[in-house]
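thread: overnight batch results

M.L. [08:02]
morning all. the overnight job finished for the chain we discussed friday. pasting input first so we're all looking at the same thing
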Amino acid sequence: MMPMRRRTFLAFLAALPFLKGGAKAQSNRLTRLFGPPLRSPIRRIFVAGPPSAVMAYVLTPERMLGWPTQLSAPAREFVLPVVRDLPVFGRLVGSSATVSVETLLSLKPDLILDVGTVDATYLSSAERISQQTGIPYALVDGRLTESVQQLLELGELLGVQERAQRLAAYARASLAEAARFRAGGRRPRVYLARTATGLETGLEGSINVEVIEVAGGANVAAAAGRGGLTRVSFEQLLSWQPDIILTQDAQFFQLTQTDPLWGRLRAVQNKQVYLLPSLPFGWLDGPPGVNRLIGLRWLVRRLNAGAEPIDWRAETRLFYRLFYGQEPSAAQLEVILKTL
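M.L. [08:03]
and the structure it wrote out:
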């Protein structure tokens, strides 16, 4: 199996202005539009949740009306000044939704953007909200494997095709690399630990842990069934005995290093617990958006001994400049990469 050399990967990115292609035919589009026809230009975008916020930010940050959740003080330093002080409106859909129809109407957005899970519940919510407000609503399938098409379709919708093509090229190369390694060989057993306890994770099919499968690993929590996020017991983890434990929670990572209970897991004994970066957005989750593409490149190398090593300082500078619009300083790089 031939890994993609870094020189080849960078050459591929260098050819970005010449990349052709857009969204697939209408019948295969990931974007479902509800409500009245869109009017150009789209200048004001309301984001329905965290994955939507990341997508709007990487494509057209100056059009965002606000954030669905509060950015932490450290995260603010990694995003462009134009969005650092935007208001927080909350989430529009789901069990933790807090945004009212009145708030939406008062903001006068040209578009509601919702990227993530597409099922009967979210389709119904999108249709209902667009009917109640008269505001166009775009619901986009947010699966990691569809990152290329997400970017191209929304680039076309928002009139930022050239930028979308640059981002889509990075996504295409990263996903193609992962697919080559996923095609064969042993699949290491992986547990993605969420929260300070480490006992929240995603079941089989959960968008929050799909990076494991895409990178070529096996999600041990799939043994508990299909679904979304769930809580598991330590006894279940003992029976699963993952080869690798991944987390973005520093408190939980420290727990695995000091608590004898967690020392009963082979992954802890073998020093196979990894704390991944989360600034300004998570490398593996938090949210489950296109921010995961750099984490995918890291995880492919952790799970596959044959993958070519990467200079993570150079790769991080490249990804952050390309997707987040600014290159991290030397001090910021130390913060991001200190646990890798």
